[in-house]
Design goal:
Helix content is 22%, strand content 41%. By secondary structure, the chain is α+β, with helices and mostly antiparallel strands. The chain has a single domain, classed as Nuclear Transport Factor 2, Chain: A (Roll). The strands form two sheets. It has a seven-stranded mixed β-sheet with strand order 2-5-6-7-8-3-4, covered by helices on one side. Strand 7 and strand 8 form a beta hairpin. The two termini are 17 Å apart.
């Protein structure tokens, strides 16, 4: 996610788990809609379709994304679109993008999720890429459709060495 994230220009899909509030009678429908959004998102990443990726985000300046790679903060859909365009320039061919352990919580017109994203592929220098990141996303239901409005991508850090652990598995 990157995504959104992006990391090394790399952004984040879905064997999943879902937690729901039994008191929310629309929760299951909303969870299914958010899960479908994440499925579309992952399919668009795997197809290299930047327009398809961005259809899952709010399309204005209110979008906020915190990523693990520089620029690290993206404010607005236009800025994040540029990051996705750049993401694909770092690979020979298309990377494989998988979301796992997706947990979704819905409350009214707001929702959040947390998951892991695994990215594999070959970079432009011919090196194998095998990275896992943690993703937290915020969603808003706008005119009946769920969209991502916030995304935060992170990796565990070894505090002794200050090095990121991109290969930590869930």
């Amino acid at each position: 996610m990157l995504l959104l994230f992006s990391f090394a220009g790399i952004p984040f899909f879905c064997a999943s788990q879902t937690k729901s509030d039994p008191n929310m009678n629309t929760g299951n429908n909303d969870e299914a809609a958010i899960r479908a959004l994440e499925d579309r998102f992952a399919a668009a990443v795997n197809a290299g379709d930047v327009n398809g990726i961005m259809e899952n985000y709010v399309d204005d300046k209110s979008l906020v994304v915190f990523d693990v790679v520089p620029r690290r903060e993206y404010l607005g859909a236009d800025a994040y679109r540029e990051d996705w365009v750049d993401f694909f320039t770092h690979y020979n061919g298309l990377p494989k993008f998988t979301i796992t352990n997706l947990v979704i919580t819905v409350e009214g017109n707001l929702a959040f999720s947390h998951s892991f994203t695994h990215i594999t592929g070959t970079d432009r220098q011919g090196h194998q890429v095998d990275r896992t990141v943690r993703v937290t996303a915020g969603y808003r239901k706008i005119k009946g459709n769920w969209l991502k409005v916030l995304e935060h991508i992170s990796v565990p850090v070894d505090l002794k060495t200050a090095k990121a652990h991109f290969n930590t598995k869930p």
